[in-house]
Amino acid sequence: MRSARPKPLHPLCGRPMTRYVMEALEALDLERTIVVVGYGAEAVTKTLYEQSTDPTRVNFVEQGVQRGTADAVSIGLQSFEPRELDDDFDLMVLPGDTPLLKSETLTELHRMHVDSGAAATLLTAHLEDPSGYGRIVRDAEGRVNRIIEHVDAAPEELEISEVNTSIYCFDRSLLTAALRKIDSRNAQGEYYLTDVIQVLRVNGHSVDALVVDDPDEVRGVNDRQQLAECEAVLRQRTNNKWLAAGVTMLDPEATYIDATVVLSPDVTLFPNTLLQGDCVIGEGSELGPDVRLTDTFVGVRSQIQSTSAVQARIGDNCRIGPYAVLDSGVEVASGTVTGPFYTSS
Questions:
Q1: Residue-level pLDDT at 10
Q2: What CATH code is assigned to 245-339?
Q3: The CATH number of the domain covering residues in 2-218
Q4: What pTM was estimated for this model as a whole?
Q5: For the chain, which terminal residue's Cβ has fewer other Cβ atoms within 10 angstroms, N or C?
């Protein structure tokens, strides 16, 4: 099973948004992941390559002109050697702006695809407000017939609540043939990957769909409001993970922990604690209230109150603050008691 295609990077809980999608894919132990890049290609390629758990399984190809999702997939397929395209395999296609997507859902999607023997299997969702999404049009027997983009939909089609998430499994050989049969005669003048579904159905192939249980999981990010909404969900997931691991939070809703932070057991976080970047917090330490640490190491059993620190290193059994400021590169020796209004400048 192979995969393609994320979108540009956006910061989300300390990581590029696309990185969350890559992590969901890595858990599936894919043979190869193809990343189709466009805007900001160099930055996307560099970041995802450096953060990949196995860069040897990741290939990057550039879509120089943005001509639609079908064109992006066609470009991704060109990265395969001719001998590889002689083989039968499943191709999973995803956008890069669904950071809440779980690997378990992708596993279930592929399992359904294999079990049904369908030419394509879609991941769909029912939304209270489906505005902006492509709609899933089913036939009289309830089978997926086609996908209609929002801008091209008729009024009765806009009433459909089941939407396309842009996440698919395809039989590679059937997909390749179907891609040759689509055109760009639509409102946006692009080659839609969604048109492949109707091509497959017209040619007698079956198309299946898995409806995701939690619509939040397939939230896309197209503006800052949607970015903030996804970040809130990710923050809750991160906090729940650390609570289960033995970290105490007096008010989880007022505690902000990047996904890149590492906490030891028995750490206590008071309200308005913000941990960003590559922070590491030692066992038994207490942080807050009103603490903001970025890329900072804290040893064991230290107490930090009303403090800001960037790229600092704080030893064991320290008492920092209140109202302390630690500048980049500062090292605080174990056992240090700063008192109030301490500054490292």
A1: 52
A2: 2.160.10.10
A3: 3.90.550.10
A4: 0.81
A5: C
